[in-house]
Design brief:
By secondary structure, this protein is mainly alpha-helical. The protein contains 28 helices and 7 strands. The protein is 65% helix and 5% strand. A hairpin with a 7-residue loop joins β6 and β7. The two termini are 37 Å apart. The relative contact order is 0.09. The model has no long low-confidence stretch (mean pLDDT 87).
Length: 689
């Protein structure tokens, strides 16, 4: 039976992953016939369409209250079948330009990127998600949708009920195949890849060289603050990935005016707006950028000529129609629902235009403004600067230093080599791109500076703390992505030595990862041994080393290689279950022992309600208001909803004296303690008969 369940789970996962692929290929090939992109642009477009289709499926099923395992499997299978048939019936041949053959240095850089991706894949399979925000509301939403099949909101926290949850819905699709959170962070791994691909395509479009673009994304994707977002349910990495992809398409649309570029541009705007409320600002920037570049192109060159392959208005019209429809669905679903249900597109957040109240809400706009760095960071306070410097070292580390070095290579070369002045006319496009990216970087820095919660959320008594400032760097990921594009451009214009700079970049990236974990260090040693073995095999033997010498060099490498494989496999096997028990405690297992699938557990005053859904996320969780002070009313409420277990906590000084705490902890009351691990986890109480 267990074998059949395993086979079904992997089959389900395969259908979920493969479902949108034929449709994505069909859309991409149809558009490439018009605009003839390169390989990386095709790859970027495929990933964007895949994410957009999956998100649209989740929104449609969830909005209809039918997001269940059976309906999801059926819809994905139908998508796969219809898309496959359309591809087979396609009359025109599909032509994908092959990727350019990489040089040896480029190959090693790409191999290192792939290796880091494998490391992160292993990490999300082993390490449970533990950050506060994920346990607070991201993961509970995923578990709630998995159990209920609809998009109803959990009632505990007013401020987050009106958030857009498109990215969490994508995570939910990866929960269904295994009925567990094993792959719940898989979308952020996709976002990590998409972030790098978006930066690479944007850098190449602006005139950066191939190797320097690869070096820039290797450094960017190795930043500790970026890596921290992968094994998490937070949406900041997805926001940055869609913004950088949208940046590329905005410029491409501005240059060509082609409907084939307009479609992915509009889709990216919708995705940006649908993953986070601040995406409305970034989406507006993408709209403004695309229109500004288009206006500049028309002003310089006149109206656009027909794009080759577009034989009529209908062929140019449908991508616009699809793009606008995708924008409204992906970007407007949550705000439209909030407007209908709450009378406010932002849910509970007050919306003002100066003194004019546009939409009332329980979260005042002035309170949000108090949480920004613009209000909280005191430029004259040395402690603030010291905290910023310390967090920059810890959260951005060596890769940021290397990116900064790539940027500074340009002024250094301009100062030390007067001959560079004669080359500027030959690199005009690169200098124009550098100026544009510099302006955009300043604009994104300003947006980060005024982003809500970049300074505090009030828990630190409105005092700027270094730890909060550091974790808030995730709000600056779009800015860091733009900085990586700028670094690639500057290094290319400075003609920085590609081979030596790539070696330094790879070393910095691997050192940064090795510093995170001994397991990463062991894997990196293994990777370096593989590279050494490949180099040894490919190295010409004539005049260098004999077969005996190769054997003398190779056998120690083989011994160490095998030992590292054994170490890593043993660690993976032992850490899979142990890490979950260590990080989540015994509460999920106790819930599984004390309840049956489908049972409802009540909770109050907890940011860790996710642990109550059980290891297989098959329990239901209901919120209990903290101001209930009538024991009879509480008992009647629990019995009416068939709730026998209630969790509470972890408690803080501000919540210990609330009425529901007294009702649950009263030794002579209606509840008995079932489980209490420590003060950092919820306690579980049972309603007495």
């Amino acid at each position: 039976m267990d074998f059949l369940i395993t086979v079904w789970s992997w089959l389900f996962l395969s259908v979920v992953v493969a479902g949108p692929i034929p449709s994505s290929i069909l859309l991409t090939t149809t558009l490439t016939r018009r605009v003839r992109p390169g390989f990386t642009e095709i790859l970027l477009t495929l990933v964007i369409f895949w994410v957009a289709i999956q998100t649209a499926v989740a929104l449609a099923l969830g909005g209809a209250g039918r997001l269940t395992a059976i309906t999801l499997f059926a819809v994905e299978l139908l998508l796969l079948a219809i898309g496959g048939v359309l591809l087979l019936w396609r009359r025109r041949p599909m032509v994908f330009p092959p990727p350019a053959l990489p040089s040896r240095t480029q190959f090693v850089t790409l191999a290192t990127l792939a290796f880091l991706g494998l490391l992160l894949t292993g990490n999300i399979l082993i390490q449970p998600i533990t950050d506060y925000d994920s346990l607070f509301y991201h993961l509970p939403f995923v578990a709630h949708v998995h159990g209920s099949g609809d998009l109803s909101m959990v009632g505990q926290f007013n401020g987050v009920r009106g958030y857009p949850y498109s990215w969490e819905l994508l995570s939910t699709l990866f929960v269904f195949p295994f009925s567990s959170d094993l792959l719940i962070a898989a979308p952020n791994l996709i976002a990590w890849f998409l972030f790098g691909l978006g930066v690479y395509t944007a850098a190449r479009l602006c005139g950066a060289g191939r190797q320097h673009s690869l070096s820039a994304i290797l450094l960017l994707l190795s930043l500790p603050i970026v890596v921290d977002q992968v094994n998490s349910a937070r949406v900041d990495l997805a926001l940055a990935a869609f913004f950088l992809a949208g940046l590329f398409y905005a410029v491409r649309f501005g240059q060509t005016g082609a409907a084939g570029h307009a479609l992915p541009w509009l889709i990216c705007i919708g995705l940006v707006c649908g993953v986070k409320t601040s995406g409305l600002v970034y989406g507006g920037m993408l709209v403004a950028l695309g229109l500004a570049v288009r206006a500049g192109t028309v002003y310089r060159s006149g109206p656009a000529r027909p794009v080759p392959g577009e034989r009529g208005k209908s062929e140019a019209f449908w991508p616009w129609l699809a793009g606008i429809g995708g924008l409204l669905l992906l970007g407007g679903f949550w705000y439209g629902r909030n407007l209908v249900t709450n009378g406010n597109p932002l849910g509970d957040v007050e919306v003002r235009l100066g003194e004019l109240m546009l939409f009332a809400g329980s979260v005042p706009a002035d309170e949000l403004r108090k949480t920004t760095l613009a209000v909280m960071f005191d430029l004259a306070n040395w402690d603030h600067w010291s905290g910023l410097a310390g967090q920059t070292v810890g959260r951005l580390s060596l890769p940021l230093v290397m990116l900064l070095g790539m940027v500074l290579a340009l002024p250094w070369r301009a100062i030390t080599d007067a001959r560079r002045r004669t080359d500027r006319s030959q690199q005009q496009d690169g200098w124009i791109g550098l100026a544009w990216m510099g302006f955009l970087l300043l604009l994104l820095t300003l947006v980060y500076w005024v982003t809500p919660f970049s300074g505090d959320d009030g828990t630190n008594e409105w005092l700027l703390s270094a730890s909060w400032l550091g974790q808030g760097f995730r709000f600056a990921l779009p800015m860091l992505g733009c900085f990586a594009v700028l670094a690639a451009l500057a290094a290319s214009l400075a003609s920085l030595d590609e081979e030596w700079s790539a070696r330094a970049v790879i070393a910095a990236s691997l050192i940064t990862f090795a510093a995170r974990s001994w397991l990463y260090l062991a894997a990196i040693i293994l990777y370096l041994l593989v590279l050494a073995a490949v180099w040894l095999i490919r190295r010409p033997a004539q005049g260098r080393t004999s077969g005996m010498e190769k054997w003398a060099i190779g056998w120690p490498v083989g011994v160490v290689f095998c030992s590292q494989v054994v170490v890593i496999l043993n660690a993976l096997q032992s850490l899979h279950d142990v890490r979950r028990l260590d990080m989540y405690g015994a509460l999920p297992r106790v819930v599984e022992q004390q309840t049956l699938p489908g049972d409802t557990i009540g909770y109050s005053l907890s940011h860790q309600s996710y642990l109550l859904y059980g290891p297989r996320l098959d329990r239901r969780v209901a919120y209990l208001p903290a101001d209930i002070d009538d024991p009879v009313a509480l008992r009647e409420h629990l019995e009416r909803h068939d709730i026998s277990l209630v969790a509470i906590g972890p408690l803080y000084p501000t919540t210990r004296d609330l009425p529901i705490v007294a009702l649950l902890t009263d030794p002579d009351g209606d509840f008995e303690l079932v489980f209490a691990d420590d003060d950092a986890r919820p306690a579980l109480y049972r309603l007495r008969e």
